[in-house]
Design brief:
By secondary structure, this protein is of the alpha/beta class. It has five helices and 14 strands. It folds into three domains: 29 residues; 119 residues, Sandwich (Immunoglobulin-like); 145 residues, Collagenase (Catalytic Domain). Bound molecules: zinc ion (ZN). The site of zinc ion has 4 residues, from helix 4.
């Protein structure tokens, strides 16, 4: 072997050795390892449970019932004669005068409260507020924080012999989600007496329920993840537990403090959940903590901004 031959031989050996080293390094990094679960770490921000009113002084049909907005629209059917129209308007004025609510009459099927009139009272035993009743919510979505009333209905079939629109006010309070009470002096007592009034518990309850304006609230409903070597498989669900539809949002995934990726999850309806499932997300480096953040850039205005992340940590292996 000449000198030239020896040189190439050594060069070849060095290249081979380097290739082997690099291959071993990559094998080490990417070799499928035992998948490890990541566990949710209790986060302080999650301890700050949103404070919405669910201990109201007045009883409702479902928990925390309210319309999306403080400004509520209504329509009055043509079948309502003049005196019933003025009674109904008197009832809206009664509530508006003493609460944060406002009412606006519109001539559209989109009205949130529809007022109908009939001369036929519902038969005994059919006085269910949601079916044949006199007044009540007709479409309700449980968004978690609230039972959001999408539509309410009022049927006026009784002649009101009392001054002050007592029957219409009683029915309007049902349409606002309130059930009867045991206070004979209250307008929500099951049997009507002309001297009954809107008691202060009702006013207080309405003002507490409508304390927050109509905004969505995004939270992680569920988060699970497994890590296999540098690869992450995860499944997260974001819930809109608020009062209105949440505009398009993103989920950011952090590996320790480094951004691994972001994912568009689009808009989320009231009380709806969006599921994001990702497999084999390559993490920037070895990691012990994964943080999911929804709407990190605060593009969605929410009821609560301090409940938008969830932290998962590697479980100790034994
Ligand atoms: Zn009633």
């Amino acid at each position: 072997m000449n000198k030239r031959g020896v040189f190439f031989y050594i060069f070849f050996l060095i290249v081979l050795l380097a290739t082997l080293l690099i291959a071993t390094y990559y094998l080490y990094i990417y070799w499928p390892r035992q998948p490890v679960d990541l566990q949710i770490v209790p986060d302080d921000s999650l301890q700050n449970k949103p404070l919405v009113e669910n201990n109201l002084p007045s009883k409702q049909f479902y928990h925390s019932m309210r319309y999306q907005d403080r400004a509520i629209t209504y329509s009055i059917a043509d079948s309502c004669a003049g005196d019933r129209v003025s009674e109904m308007k008197g009832a809206f004025a009664n509530i508006a005068a003493r609460t944060v609510l406002t009412f606006e009459q519109i001539n559209s099927d989109d009205a949130m409260i529809k007022v109908l009139c009939s001369d036929v009272a519902p038969e005994a035993g059919q006085e269910n507020y949601f079916v044949a009743g006199e007044g009540g919510p007709s479409r309700v979505v449980n968004s978690t924080l609230y039972s959001v009333i999408l539509d309410g209905k009022i049927s006026l079939f009784r002649e009101d012999k009392c001054a002050g629109a007592k029957v219409a006010t009683h029915e309007l309070l049902h349409a606002l989600g309130f059930d009867h009470n045991n206070n004979p002096a209250s307008i929500l007592y099951p049997t009507l007496k002309c001297e009954q009034e809107i008691d202060s518990e009702i006013i207080d309850s309405i003002n507490r329920l409508y304390h927050y304006e109509s905004l969505p609230d995004l939270v992680f409903y569920l988060a699970t993840a497994t890590k296999s070597g540098r690869y992450l498989n995860f499944n997260v669900e974001v819930l809109n537990q608020g009062l209105s539809v949440a505009g398009p949002a993103k989920i950011s995934v952090y590996s320790d403090d480094e951004l691994a990726d972001t994912f568009d999850i689009g808009a989320i309806g009231l009380g709806s959940r969006k599921i994001l499932t990702v497999e084999n997300l390559k993490l920037p480096r070895d990691t012990n903590k994964i943080v999911f953040v929804v709407d990190e850039e605060n593009k969605v205005q929410e009821l609560f901004e301090n409940n938008n992340q969830v932290i998962l940590r590697l479980v100790e292996q034994r």
